[in-house]
Amino acid sequence: MEALLHPDFPLDPTFPNSARSAYWVGPRHLAGDDGRLYDVVADTLAGLGWTSLTIVRGRQKPDEESEDQQVLRSTVLHIHPDALRWAQWVLPDEPFHLGERPIAWQVSARADTSSPLAQWSAYFTPDLPGEALVDFLAALDAHEQPTMPLASPELVLDTVTAHGWVRDIDQPDAGAMDPTFTSHLSLGEVPPLIQDADPRTLVAQVDEMAGPAGWQAWAEPRVGALCLWAASFSAGVPHDLVAAFASALSSTAPVLRRVLPESTRDRLLCAPAD
Predict the structure, then answer these.
(1) 5 near 228, Cβ under 8 Å?
(2) Mean pLDDT for each consecutive 10-residue tract of the chain (274 residues)?
(3) How far is CA 260 from CA 28, 30, 249, in A?
(4) Which of 102, 55, 106 is CA-nearest to residue 85?
(5) Residue 85 half-sphere exposure, CB side, CA atoms within 13 Å?
């Protein structure tokens, strides 16, 4: 279980006076993950019938000197019954970063079980609202063919603009942002190390050609500041799955929180849940 991100939440007359008090918070794309991103997702996957496995790396011997002991790390892998889709909690190993934030969850899918390689992958950092990742995984679980796209990129943009987001004035067909210009959604070049079965992802930099476009999302509370959260979808992720994520992320419905991100406290509206 994850520890609270901000256990010593300072007093503020306009915000909860206790990190243990429950409050309805909005907008949700700035509300953080309540310090429970693992639990919320793991509980959802268990409810959907996915199997969980713990992967342990490294070793420790009780009689070893502390400086000689190897770090023991573990990740948790959740696998769909058809073995075509899986989700891995990778934060303990922090393999790489998005927006200078470590990856927390990696979700992948393949077309059939004959290949061990993922057809596409999606990556999510801490402080991403768990509701968005849960809806993405619920849509993935319900998808009969998890690598088969069922919609065009326009569906993603239509979904967020229906919730009041505005299209990017420079790229109206490939980007949108919330009305405060804090959270962004963009279709374009993917960051390094994003895994996708499209061979163009391996040669794009070598050939100096544009590789396949994937969706990226992030929240930047202040220009030049550390991102609150980031998400990256490789080019192969079906647009209808991204739309499910985007719909939950941009929803105007408040979310229940006990812990608020410090970087967005002044932008949140809170109401007691009691």
Answers:
(1) no
(2) 32 43 95 96 97 78 61 81 95 79 95 91 96 98 92 96 97 96 94 67 48 90 90 95 98 96 94 88
(3) 11, 9, 16
(4) 106
(5) 22
**Which residues 6+ apart lie within 8 Å of 106 measured at CB?**
87, 88, 90, 121, 122, 123, 124
Give the residue from 226, 255, 211 showing the smallest Cα distance to 29: 255
Tell me how far the alpha carbon of residue 95 is from its chain's centroid.
15
3-state helix, strand, coil in the chain (%, to 5): 25, 25, 50
Model-level pTM? 0.84
Contact by Cβ (8 Å): 209, 199: no
CA 206 to each of CA 95, 125, 194, 203, 272: distance values in angstroms, whole numbers, following the listed order: 23, 28, 16, 5, 54
> Angle at CA 93, nearest 5°, toward 110 and 5?
110
Distance CA 232, CA 201 (A): 14
User: How many whole angstroms separate alpha carbon 111 and alpha carbon 123?
Assistant: 19
Mapping DSSP to helix (H, G, I), strand (E, B) and coil, where does residue 115 land?
Answer: coil
